[in-house]
Specification:
Blueprint: H1 2-18, H2 28-44, E1 49-57, E2 60-67, E3 73-76, E4 79-94, E5 97-99, E6 102-105, E7 108-111, E8 113-115, E9 118-123, E10 127-130, E11 136-139, E12 146-154
Antiparallel strand pairs: 1-2, 2-12, 3-7, 4-9, 4-10, 4-11, 4-12, 5-8, 6-7
Length: about 160
């Protein structure tokens, strides 16, 4: 009986330790410092992007991303992307199909671009939600920089 009680207490303690806090704050100075570091990383990578997960939960995460080049075409089977423009401007293509797509992880396809979608401006202050299974791509003009926040929300199929 004592063993069961101790085991139950251990399980409860581990669960409590892993529970996310009821709220978390990231101050502006910290975010600006992360943005500066990500910009340097993006400039030094062939893909021209750097990102960091700022907050993670089982059903979602919040990332900061900085691009100095256009991105690949993307498609996510189980995740919606909520993008919020923070600094700079870009174009975003949504819909259509991934060009030369390859599965890079379960339920994730990346490719050379998106064909047949709708292109629209995406600037600081803009917000877009891209549902699962919708091809999308962020395009930048040469020499430009774009910083945005991405909220990845895992959608459980019904």
């Amino acid at each position: 009986m004592v063993t069961k009680v101790v085991f139950s207490l251990l399980v409860a303690a581990v669960a409590a330790a892993q529970a996310p806090p009821p709220s978390q704050t990231l101050d502006g100075a910290s975010l600006n410092a992360k943005a500066a570091a990500l910009l340097q990383q993006a400039r030094s990578t062939p893909a021209g992007i750097a990102s960091e997960v700022l907050l993670k939960r089982p059903e979602s995460n919040i990332q900061m991303a900085v691009r100095v080049k256009s991105g690949q075409g993307e498609w996510h089977r189980d995740d919606a992307d909520i993008l919020i423009g923070v600094e700079g401007s870009a174009q975003i293509i949504t819909g259509g199909e991934i060009v030369n797509g390859k599965e890079t992880a379960p339920g994730e396809i990346r490719g050379d671009g998106v064909r047949g979608g709708t292109t629209q401006p995406f600037r600081a202050g803009d917000f877009i939600r891209i549902e699962p299974k919708v091809a999308h791509q962020v395009l930048l003009a040469p020499g430009s920089t774009f910083r945005y926040m991405a909220v990845k929300v895992h959608i459980t199929p019904q």
